[in-house]
Amino acid sequence: MLTRAVHTATLLNRDRKGADKSLESIIRHWKSEVICLSQMMLRSLRRMPPIAAFAALAALSYAPAQQKGKAQPPKSLRLYILDCGNITGVSAANFGFKEGELKDTEMITPCYLIAHPRGTLMWDVGEIPDGAFKGDGQPAKQGAFTVTKPLLPQLAALGYAPADITYLGLSHYHGDHVANANLFASSTWLVQEVERNAMFAPQDDKAKNAPNLSYFGNLKNSKTTIIKNTDHDVFGDGTVVIKFTPGHTPGHQSLFLRLAKTGPLVLSGDLYHYPEEMTLKRIPTIEFNQEQTAKSRASLEDFVKQQKAQLWIQHDAKRAKTLKKAPEFYE
Ligand SMILES: [Zn+2]
Fold first, then answer.
1. CA neighbor of 274 nearest in space, from 92, 20, 12, 99
2. C-alpha of residue 162 to centroid of ligand 1, in Å
3. Which CATH class is domain 78-320?
């Protein structure tokens, strides 16, 4: 897309006299490709001087939400695990552990694409925005976070663009789960009412883990399904169900999947970070409400038993080594 915009600039500069004509033909070409370019925008482009029109077209080239990918809906539910980085050097004490109780505090940060015959769901969208990559092939780093691959190219490799993402679900608002949320502002956002209220409440900038509007501010105007602090069946057939598991944040949620071959599975967001939180019964000190976390854990563990489901702790670095990564998938 960018190459095309640069080509446009070359055309416009090469022949200033013919620029208007070139612009007309370019606009016609773009009209066929850019689905949401409205008649009104086209009229504005015609009125602009060529250079301004180029700037507008270049800006459109950065509007990936407008472009559809080539992926076809799968026949049955699929789960893709994408690489959205890792977290190192965190303090075990923040997660309720005494010194030495955790051998390794590394966490991994997956993003997930769920493809259903009737639509798609992005579940968690990373810890560093794609825009922070310098394009020099080097990983992006922010404090304890390191990401080696931006998210959109990983989706594109599977044939998906943001315009193909029907629903956006975030386990919770912490920065390591929402960094690319603005890229999915044209999807329908599935959010718990209490979580959304907390995300857009006036913030104390110095507060630890405060919601970062720069990551998700555009969601304020997204088409939104506000879930009334309960479970939510995403596609209406029981195969993809958001579970209300508050405590880590006011409206933290987990995701239940019923996969045809893999079987029932729960992605538990940050209800746990390390398997040792389960075995040693530790609750992080960084919770919004530890009592709620304890209740949510008890009820999710009952659900998991009843469904005979696997429970995958999203940040679990040890398990991650054993899991299939995109382009492979679970079905
Ligand atoms: Zn997290």
1. 92
2. 22
3. alpha beta
